[in-house]
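User: Show me sequence and structure for the first protein, then do the same for the second.

Assistant: Starting with the first protein.
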Amino acid sequence: MSSTATKHVAVIGGGILGVSTAVHLLRQGATVTLLTEQGLASEATGRSLSWLNSAGERSTPYHQLRIAGVDRYRTLFAADPSREWLQFGGGLMWNAAGESEVTKARHAYEKSIGYDSQLLAPEEIGSVTPGIDASAVPENAIFNPGEGWVSLPDLVNFLMEEFHALGGQLVLNAGKASVMVEGGRATAVETATGETYPADAVLVACGAATPAVVKPLGVEIPNGSPVSMLVVTKPVEHQVAAVMNTPRAAVRPNPGNTFALDHDWYEGHITEHADGSFTIPDDVVQELADESSKLIAGNPELKPASWKIGYKPIPGDGEPVFGELGRVPGCFVAFTHSGATLGLIAGELLSGEILTGDKHPMFATFRPGRFS
């Protein structure tokens, strides 16, 4: 830690990026105040498919950051492979009928960058990964053995045990917090009711709300966040280990023999209300469950137990936004689509930047200043 080390950091946001960064800061001796609008994991972290991957095609820096992200989860997994909330059972994806060439091209691209990728005919799937109804696969599928999934609310609970053990201060239900600036620097966080928490540095990690929080500081971060939903089913006997990404449903195992379900085709059925709440017809939720059932061996009846709807954080250009605001020294941001995959690595790298002032090269293309 350099002599200009930041001592006290206020973190706005009780999702995976805020919690991970807070714990990494505490490990390095900082004093941390973590403020949440409502509870922990109450927004996107509480409704993320949280598939750990860098499949498909994206910019090289983003791919490298995601690979590092998956690596940190592997280390956590290796420490205790019995954790029900973090597993590496691979990922299985396929495209719609008639798109087998698209699937082949994706496989070829993944192979070209050294990403573990197997192109399978439907009849080969059963010998590679269990519990799948191969009749749902039109022509071919890609299996990525190195991928996994995490239940982020469970991970947040796990990290918060360390947060409290290391003396972090948690402020729940702070409402919409704002960054206070004095002499051009971020100096404190103010809650909706007017309490202030002085700090040497502030991290804004509020998911889809991040651009709105930094806007009063004169910083524009484009927001491309769509509304999405995560459904958790009632328990059902199954053998599925892989995360499945298919034309009509994305499905992953979830603790307690349940499944987590997601997709985007139903987004037009979601209604946003004046009070900020969302609703969706029950039959649309059941349709997603029925589509998911077709993917699972034996086609068990899937019954939705709960579903959560809200904004899925996606920056306007699709790339992550990490680091200090150029026009407001001492104020840092963390805003990304891949909050799950990047959760641990982003907290590690951001905490280093906040405490030392040294900019990490892996964030070079992700700086908030690129939009100004």
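Switching to the second protein now.
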Amino acid sequence: MTESSQLRILVADDHDLLRDMLQLYLGKEPDISVETVADFNAAFERVKDDPVFDLVLLDYSMPGMTGLEGMQRIQDLPGDHRVGIISGTATRDVAQEALEKGAAGFVPKTLSAKSLINAVRFMAAGEQFTPIEFLRAPEPERNHPLAQKLSRREMDVLKGLTEGKSNKEIARDLDIREPTVKLHVKTLYRKIGVANRTQAALIAKEQGLY
């Protein structure tokens, strides 16, 4: 904690409403001082200019982040930077990868205000946070014969196909690039023995996967 006895928190998120809500939640606490920025580049420059933040919270999918590369860039700046990831769409695999790479924590955007405040204090104190229920939520579909042929990300893409989504929409939902979705689509076609997205969706539905 800084000399002022206040935790200094920097929140970077490109959604105005969420950014305002986080500032409102955290700013009500007498021991927390919060600043917000709207993209990764602004966060990077802010930390570089003034490294005395107890915690930097980065939205996983905001402009400039490039997945977890943004987190790594701030961690690599001179000083000791505690960086947490906040996301509404990132998968369990992303959360686990972030923690393995030294993230202060992973915070789902579904977290309640009270839980969020507790999580921020926990991370700023030097602990690593992520909701246990997020990491341990059951995934019964992984026992499905069709699911066993696919990676977790291919499963996510297949789910998008069953919902009639375009590659662009799937990419947006999963916070990945559209060419990456196209690659996953091509690979899952081969693995489950289909020629197009309609056949893939039909098989997934007929076999009770989604």
